[in-house]
């Protein structure tokens, strides 16, 4: 039985099954993989991830901090440059083990569907509840603590890291990132080079501007394609060597997530996922007072209604330069997130093969 009586207008809820957890990635099957492989001509690969300690500091989002690495223990000793002979006399090995306290959305990342839901009357009883993609509910399917201490937020703030028996305090279950990982995320991708047309000035890109770029560059987007947007943002960010100036960040192209024509195009194009090299793919924070509407309309459309994952802060400029020089826009993309049950986002090391 469906978990909802109302489904959001224009949504894909139920289209891939009442219990679906993968959304439009269902469109990326053997045909899309074969089409992606057919785009491999030069045999050249590009790593589309920033080093995960960038952007540096907490300027993009004060609640997201750089990763912290610490050694684990080995045989009661600090497990870094550690002599195996402590446990096994006569052993010549020198060992290092570590742990990481990682904000899953600090750097190059995928957003899971559990990252953004909405207040929506899914039961059709006249009351809005907190709901995620395909009707999965906050509180029953997506669970988190209601108390800061329970959340472990203070202790993570001090970066205590995990000790044996440390329990997770949140779990996005059916809308967590592990379902994306299970898919594998490999298929044909299409690059749209916004920087080549708009430069690095802040530009709000709606449907009209996007379709002018698609026409000018002869870019064709088909159902099941993975859409990758190049804006130049992470290149400018990385050039600041981990110490970004907060006043330098209002730059480069961002999608106008509130543009209804752009929303229709994303829905009708059948794109399976969208990734960009900027902070939120779309403009954020909102530039007007909100009245019962999403602050992140593209997130609402993609993560909540359509089941289209969003990738952010990717490193795309080298790939964009190569494709432009070759007069191409398509490539094979392999970009699985971590198979991390419960998480609402994940770092990713996307690989483009051209
Ligand atoms: C925000 O919280 C702005 O979301 P994202 O990391 O998806 O940009």
From TrEMBL:
Coiled coil: none annotated. GO terms for biological process: L-tryptophan catabolic process to kynurenine. GO terms for molecular function: arylformamidase activity. InterPro entries: KFase/CYL (IPR007325), KFase_sf (IPR037175). It holds the Pfam family Cyclase. Transmembrane segments: none annotated. Gene3D superfamilies: Putative cyclase. PANTHER family: CYCLASE (PTHR34861:SF10), PTHR34861. This is Putative cyclase.
